[in-house]
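During the reporting period the student researcher (J.K.) took over the structure-prediction task from the postdoctoral fellow and processed the backlog of single-chain submissions. One of the processed entries is reproduced below for the supervisory committee.
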Amino acid sequence: MTEPIDDRLLAALRGYPDTVGGSSDADPVAPGSALTVDAACAIFQAQIGSRHLDLAARRLRAAGRGYYTIGSSGHESNAAVAAALRPTDPALLHYRSGAFFLHRAAQLGDGRGALRDVLLGIVAATAEPIAGGRHKVFGRHDLAIIPQTSTIASHLPRAFGLALMLSRAHRFADCPWPSDAVVVCSFGDASANHSTALGAINAARNAAYRGLPVPLLLVCEDNGIGISTPTPDGWIAANYATGPGLDYFDADGTDLPAVYAAATAAADHVRRHRRPAFLHLRTVRLLGHAGSDVETAYRTTQEITADYPRDPVLTTAALLIERGHRSAADLLARYQDTRATVAALAAEVAGADQLDSAAAVVAPLTEAARRAREASAPAAAPVPAGLTLAQAINTTLHDVLRNRTGAIVFGEDVARKGGVYGVTRGLQRDFGAARVFDTILDEQTILGIALGAGLAGLLPIPEIQYLAYLHNALDQIRGEGATLEFFSTGQYRNPAVLRVAGYGYQRGFGGHFHNDNSVAALLDIPGIVVASPAHPDDAAAMLAGCAAAAAAAGTFSVFLEPIALYHARDLHEPGDGGWLSGTVGALGGRVGTARIHGAGTDLTLVTFGNGVPMSLRVARRLRAARGIDCRVVDLRWLAPLPVADLLREAAATGRVLIVDETRRTGGVGQQVLSALVEGGFGGRIARVASADSFIPLGDAALRVLLDEDTVERAALQLCDEAAGISAAAARARGR
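J.K. obtained the following C-alpha cells:
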C-alpha cells in the first residue's frame, strides 16, 4: 500500500543528481542560520521516522492490527521545536507532534525505542511504556513529555497552571522540573478556536500583564483545517500577533532554518523573561485527518495535491541536497532504511499482548483507590470543641498549610476577603500571598492551575465558589484531572483537594446558581474521590484525609461542603450546640467509611450532607411519638460509596429509607439503591429525594427541596408497611 506523498518524495529524491558538496557537519545549514548541518540531519531523521510511523499505522489498520491513524504528516517541522528546547522542558503535545516526540527521544539516545513506543501505542499493546495499551499518546516520563489525549485543547489550562506554578514550586516544594524550565504546549489551529484554549491563553496573558512569571511556549501548528472545516486565512495571526501579555513568533513550516530560528527565539525569550509566547507554525495537513477520513468528500483533488510541495520532509531533503550537505542517494537510503526499521518494528509489535480484562484496564484506577484509602487512614488531630463546620474547615486548612509546605489555597475571593462565607479567613495573613491567592473569575483557570500545580510538586487546594459554577469547567476534571493517572499508568498524577461550596437550603438567597444540588456529573468520573461532610468533626477529619491522600497517593478529591450547614450550631433546639465540633466523637478521615449515628433496630436512614441533621431530627421524633428506633448512616463519601458499611447497617434493621437531598433522577440515592440491591440486601427499601427541578429564588425553593415532613411520612409508611407484612405473615403461619 502506497500513498501519493510517499511516491512523490521518492520520485523527487531519485530525480536529483548524485552529487554532494564539501560542507562540514558543523557548518550552518543555510547562510546566517544557527542550525548546523548535523542538527538539521537529526531533525530530518525525526521527520522521516514520524512519516513512516504514519504510513505504518495505516498498514496496520488495513491488516486489522492497528487502532489509531491520526498522524503527523505535514507537521514534521515541529521536530525543530524540540531541537530548540531542552529535554528537561515539560511538554504537553498535540496529537500531530510525532516528530517532536522522536527528536526529543533521539536527544537522549533512544530514537529507535521511541519508534517502537509509538507503534506499541498504535496496536494498543500493554508493553507501551506510558499508557499501557489504554490509548495512543505521545508521552514518556524520562522525556518530560506528559501524555495528552485532548483533541480540543483541554490540556492548555494545565499547561498554563504548570508554567504559573513553577517558581512557587521551587520555593515551597520538591519540584521535578528545572527552575528555568519552559513549559511547551502544542495544539492545532482548529483547537485555537475552542473556548478552553481561549480561556487558557487569556489567563496566561492576564498573569503576564500583572507581572507574574509564566514561562509558557504555546505552539500553534496551523494546517488551515479542522477535520473538514477550513480556518480562515490569517485568522491565527490576526488573533495572536498583537495584544498585551503574549509575545508572537511565526514561521513557515516548510522552511527549516526559519522554523528553528523562530522556535529558538521564542524558547529563549520565554526562558529569559519568564513570559508566555505564541509560536505560530504554518504547516500543512497531509494524509487527511485520519486513515478513516475520506478527504475527497470535502476537498477537491486539486486542493489536496496543491499541498504536496509544502511537505516538510521534502523541503528539508531539498535544503540538505541543494546546499550540498548531503547527497540525494544518502537521504534516499536513510528514508528507505527508516522504512525498513519501522516495518520490522511494526511486524514485531503487531501481535503484542493487549489488555484482556476489565481488571487489567482499570488497574491504574484500582491501585489509585487503594493508595487513597491507605494514605487517608490515619486519624486527624481533633479540632477544638465548639466549632462550626466553616470554622472546622478553616482550622484544618490552617493545619494543612502549616504542616505541608507545598500546600497552596486559591480561588475566587479566598485571599484577603477570606471567602464568601469566611471559610478561608486569615489564611493569607498567616501564610502569605504566594500560598493563598485569588485567581481570575474563571473556574476552568482555577482547575488548570490546580492540575499544573500538582505536576510541579505542590499540593493544590483550589476553591470553586459554588457547585453550579463547577459545571462550567467540568472537563478539566473529567478529561484531564481524572485521566492523567489512567493514561500514564500512574507515572504522572494530579494531586488536589478541590473544595466546592454546594447543595441547597440557603433560605431566601441566591436561587439556582447558589443552591445547586446536582452532583451526578461528578459521580460517573472514574478515579476521583468525592467527599461530602455534614458535621464539623467529620469535615476536619475528611479534609485532612483528602490532603494526606493527595500528598502521598496523588489523589484528586472533590470536597463538597454544605453551605447551609457552614454556620449551623444547633441540632434539635435553639441553643443546644448539637451541631458543633466535639459532639459526635472522633472518626478518622479514611476514604470510603461512613459514620453511624445510633444503634436502632427498626429502621436505617441512609443520607449525607444536609440530610444528616434532617434525618437525626426525624429519628428523634419517630422515637418520641411512635417508639420507632432508628440508626442514621452518614455516607460521608459519595465516591467511593462506603458499600460495606451501608450493607451492614441495612442488614441490622432490614428496612432502609434513603434520604437524598439531590435530584430524584441522577441523584446520589440512585447509586445507594443500586448498591443495596447489587449487594444482596433483601429487606424493604424506600427513597425520598428533591424534585427534578432547578432551585428557584426565595421560599419557592422549599417546594422542590426535600423536607423533614416528607422524610418522616416516608419513614412511617415504610415501618407501617413492614409491620403489616409481618402481621400478615404471622397470621398466615397460624393458618
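The committee noted the following: The two ends are 83 Å apart (CA to CA).
J.K. will present the remaining backlog at the next meeting.
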